[in-house]
Amino acid sequence: MRSAECNKQTIYYALFTGYTDAVDDDGYKTGEKTKTYADPVAFRTNVSAAKGATSQEPFGLEQNYSRTMNTCDMNCPIAVDTLVWVGRTPTSGPHNYRVSRVAQGLFNIVYALEEVSVNGSQWTPPTPTPDPEPEPDPDEDEDGTP
Length: 146
Fold this sequence. Notes:
CATH topology of the domain at 5-23 and 31-53 and 61-120: Thrombin, subunit H
CATH class of the domain at 5-23 and 31-53 and 61-120: Mainly Beta
Largest sheet: 6 strands, antiparallel, barrel
Number of helices: 0
Radius of gyration: 20 Å
Order of helices and strands: EEEEEEEE
Number of strands: 8
């Protein structure tokens, strides 16, 4: 009952992988660094409703977060600066949350999610991998009859 399946929802996350050199329109390095992220991954977890007053705040009272997310999967790779899609998919729009804090206990991990606003011109959806061609059924004729 620690993490009941009926309380979970599917979110997507993209892990922070590092920095790359930014380039201008001509392909020259600008001297600035840009953050890079891995491809989004689907994950089922418990996500709280919007932040409200509670008797216990896992990250303190003055932290900047609007939702929390928790899991009993102690091997979950989500960390600070991970991008999160809650209530949407990566192909439908940019991420709407960022992990700002992580609190790990003995049996669960709680993530503080900070709501972010991403300009649509700065975001490009991930390139979907095409489905492979289905293998032809050897028992069927060329016209599709068995």
